[in-house]
Amino acid sequence: MNERMPTVLFLDQYGAIGGGQRILLDLVGATVARGWRVRVLCPSGSLFDACRHAGADVHALLLPPMKDGPKSTWSLLRVWHASRRIAHEQEHLARESDVIVVNGPRTLAIARVWVIRLRKPALLYLHGVYGRVENMFIRSFLALPRTAAVAPSPLVAAPFFRLKNVQVISNWVSREFLEASANPARLRQMLGMTDTHPIVLVPGRFSPNKGQRLALEASKLLSDIPCHFVFAGAPLFEGQGREVEARLREASDHAPLRIHVLEWKQPMPALYDGADVVMVPSVWEEPFGLTALEAMARGRPLIVTNRGTLPTLTDHGRCAQVVSADAQAIAAALRSFIADRPEWEDRAQQARRHVEEHFHPQKLQAEVLAVCESLLRS
Predict the structure, then answer these.
(1) Fewest CB within 10 angstroms: 144, 210, 265, 291, which?
(2) DSSP class of residue 350?
(3) pTM of the model
(4) Same fold yes or no, 7-172+361-377 and 176-358
């Protein structure tokens, strides 16, 4: 008799695809590849469509809106109340599933109802550094039987260091970043560039935290150097990101041959392949830094700020130039790149090997799924 394969229910709080959602998508693919049945409950959007394309049974989730940044007790209680209603409406999905994977804290209250009422095991995926009230809810959830959490870095895990059911398992790069053929011409073609000036790529979600405005300041300090600054991203689920996007587009209107803003719709590796150097200018304590890892996987020279996990991720300067989060330091690093590109290219190839050794998706996805299996046995 064939052993029945488990059913996993993934919960996500967003419909757009950011870094955490790309990790979820990879896990959905890895779970489907094992022969497990996969259900996803998330808002409508690009994530909904991508999960369905990956072979998951996808259901729409309607959460109340919530502002960016630390959440007030009132807003969390409002979501908590709505979550109990959603948990009741979607309880059939949980009943038919063997383990629940909660991708971020906004759907935690839904999963909590199912863990208590149905005694389902649940894995919480932590992607950020949260506020005091959110951490309180997370600790309360992790005090329940048959629960565990995964954090991608020690920084994210730090508030929960006393809890034995919290593990640090690094994020990874998607397989395409290690396997896709190089396509360095695609980005220039998309932007209609006819010169050979260096491209400085600033990828990622538009956000005050991600440092796009800092990169703009650095570009002004390099007015004597012909180059292109390409800001590739979108505000996604962050309201303040729209203000950042407006500032970037204003700068592009004033210098259209130097400042470029685009939302990349092509295969992601080709975006990095077209860059001469990639910049990750975060100004907050970066919980992980997936864009930096992707640049390293494509063997591109890289500049990161010394915020959060970025220095550790880049092996403390062996795989990237690590600078302070100010415009002058970034501009100086870019001048160094222009002056000595061969040395930077050598370091970029070392970064590629570092990713293959420490951030390979097959190994790290297996570690996450092993946590799910452990919960199933509990």
Answers:
(1) 265
(2) H
(3) 0.93
(4) yes
Give the closest residue to 294 by CA, choosing from 359, 364, 197. Answer: 359
Closest alpha carbon to 306 in 316, 298, 297: 316
217 alpha carbon, distance to own chain's centre: 25
Q: Where are the alpha helices (DSSP H) in the chain?
A: 19-33, 46-53, 73-89, 91-95, 108-118, 132-142, 154-157, 175-179, 186-191, 212-220, 240-254, 268-273, 290-297, 310-313, 327-339, 341-358, 361-377
Q: Where are the domains of the chain?
A: 7-172+361-377, 176-358
Could you report the per-residue pLDDT of 119-135, keeping only the tens digit for each? 999 999 999 999 898 89
Fold adopted by 176-358: Rossmann fold (3.40.50)
Task: Write the DSSP assignment of 157-183 as a string of letters.
Answer: HGGGTT-TTEEE------HHHHHSPP-
Structure tokens at 238: 């962050």
CATH of 7-172+361-377, picked from 2.40.128.50, 3.60.20.10, 3.40.50.2000, 1.10.10.60, is: 3.40.50.2000
* pLDDT > 70: percent of the chain: 96
pLDDT in tens, 323-342: 999 999 999 999 999 999 99
Q: Which residues pair with 59 in a beta bridge?
A: 41
Q: For residues 285, 290, 294 and 299, what is the CA-based torsion angle, rounded to 10 degrees?
A: 30
